[in-house]
Amino acid sequence: MQLTILSTSDTHGFVLPTTYSKRGEDQPFSLAKAKTVLDDLRRHADGPTLTIENGDWLQGSPLAYFAAKVQPDPRLLTAAYDAVGYDAGIIGNHEFNYGAANLQDAIATLNYPILCANILRGKKPAFGKPYQIFERGGAKVAVLGLTTSYIPHWEGPANIEGLTFVDALQTAKKWLPRLRKLADVVVIAYHGGFERDLETGEPTEALTGENVGYELSQLPGVDALVTGHQHRELAGLVNGVATTQPGYRGEDVGKITLTLAQEGQHWRVTDKHAELVKTGHQVPAPQVLAAVATVAPQVEDWLDAPLGQVIKGDMTITDSFQARVAEHPYIEFINRVEMAATGTDIAGTALFNDDGRGFGQQISMRDVVTNYIYPNTLAVMRLSGADLKAALEQCAEYFSLDDHGELAVTQRFLLPKPQQYNYDMYQGIDYTLDIRQPVGRRVVGLRYHGAPVAPTAFYEVTVNQYRAGGGGNFAMFDQSKIVRENQKDMTELIANYLRANPKLEATVDHNFKVQGAQCGA
To answer: How far apart are CA 154 and CA 57, in angstroms?
Structure first.
């Protein structure tokens, strides 16, 4: 008998094939296209199937934001996920971005079970059951749900109050012996990725516990491993375990095929295969389209609502790399919004990915949410000058010099997962990043109000909550250094700023610069 395990992961609320940069797009991804693929695979499977939603579905798209903040009703989003036909779902880290209560409300509207063994309230799983056993073709299939335990390093304390995040690897070790006794096949569905090279086992990132997929694949008794979180496209055998990670926004469906042989009243796995199936060329499933037929045009109308007008200058981004090398008016604008919202005169922000295009002459909500893509709130930190310099030194690692001495992006910020969001640019201080210098000694000329930043002096600095908690492995930041917060979502803060300042000027004071061998003195 063949058992087929199908999965999506990190769909981030992209129910429809659009980036929302304009109306009427037909992009090569979406939950709706993934369902078309899933239906076809289920229909033609040579045996029973099991379909898993592997986390990060409640946040990410304008539709998800609309359902959480603009017209709060989780069913506006969850109806589409119910239409897919999942057998089980997993909790992702971004499920907490709008708070645990919002997550609980959303889970209550789903018709499939949520599995999560390592997020506890007290001593019990906080969301759903730790595992579930499904019967497929007479075989018992156990699915253990796990979520990256690194969430407290990113999420605001209010959003995870009362929750305990237990190490995913230790949780798996606890449950696997029991599941092996209860089931013929054991599947781990883990919203997390891989911390090591899949062939050599060498670390590919700091071993913080954020991603433990490689170590999970080494545990005895695991037949299949469904992963996510890193937005990678992976399929194959890792330490003999059939493994998938199906990309981002529904661009792929993970497919694991296990061949089972019956031995008395039990079954054992005799062969394994894993692959990804692209969704881009498919037609969106009508059931998913119908689930959002009412809300989708409302979201588009909300996105088109005008907010402000740039009457002088240009905030459009035509080259995202150059926008990180030399200060761009859009970056300065975001930093000034942060400072205005928190009453500081130093702020840092990132250009989160290479898709942002800044602002044109007419600014709409669509421009805001497609540029500032994360539901960040703001935190004010009391940092020493040494802390501030250390943060800038870490940001400077984003750049390297190529063989010609020209600036390039350091590979670890591109692979295995793009991490442009971990390079911050600051306003309110003057500094130079000299990439010609060794790592750790690249920040030169660091000044505040014309005076050198003193290592032992203290400064109030605004950053987003993710960074303030040390997100991105910024060890010099942590929650203990936060002195106050603004709990409004940055999307809302930007929109309010634009409404209050309809006559904007695109400005840049060039308070920072990045130097390579070809950049001059």
So the answer is: 17
Q: Cα–Cα distance between 137 and 86 in angstroms, integer?
A: 18
Question: Domain 305-515: what homologous superfamily?
Answer: 5'-Nucleotidase, C-terminal domain (3.90.780.10)
Question: What are the distances in angstroms from CA 216 to CA 115, 118, 138, 389, 467?
Answer: 17, 14, 27, 37, 28
Positions of CATH 3.60.21.10 in the chain = 2-299
Instruction: Determine the residue type at 37.
Output: V
Rounded to whole angstroms, how far apart are CA atoms 471 and 97?
14
List the alpha helices (DSSP H) in 275-397: 286-291, 295-303, 320-325, 329-342, 365-371, 385-396
Q: 436-465 pLDDT, tens per residue?
A: 999 999 999 999 999 999 999 999 999 999
CA 215 – CA 57 distance, rounded (Å): 25
145: phi then psi, degrees, rounded to nearest 5: -95, 125
Strand 358-359 to strand 443-448: parallel, antiparallel, or no bridges (unpaired)?
A: unpaired
In this prediction, residue 517 carries a pLDDT of 65
pLDDT of residue 497: 94
Q: Quick one: tokens of 117?
A: 């063994």
Q: Which residue has the tokens 């602002």?
A: 359
Neighbours of 202 (CB within 10 A): 8
CATH 3.60.21.10 is held by the domain 2-299: yes
For the question of whether the overall pTM of this predicted structure is more than 0.85, the answer is yes
The Cα 350–Cα 114 span in angstroms is 33
Compute the distance between CA of residue 199 and CA of residue 301 in angstroms, rounded to an integer: 48
Number of Cβ within 10 Å of residue 287's Cβ equals 17
The whole-angstrom separation of Cα 42 and Cα 7 is: 12
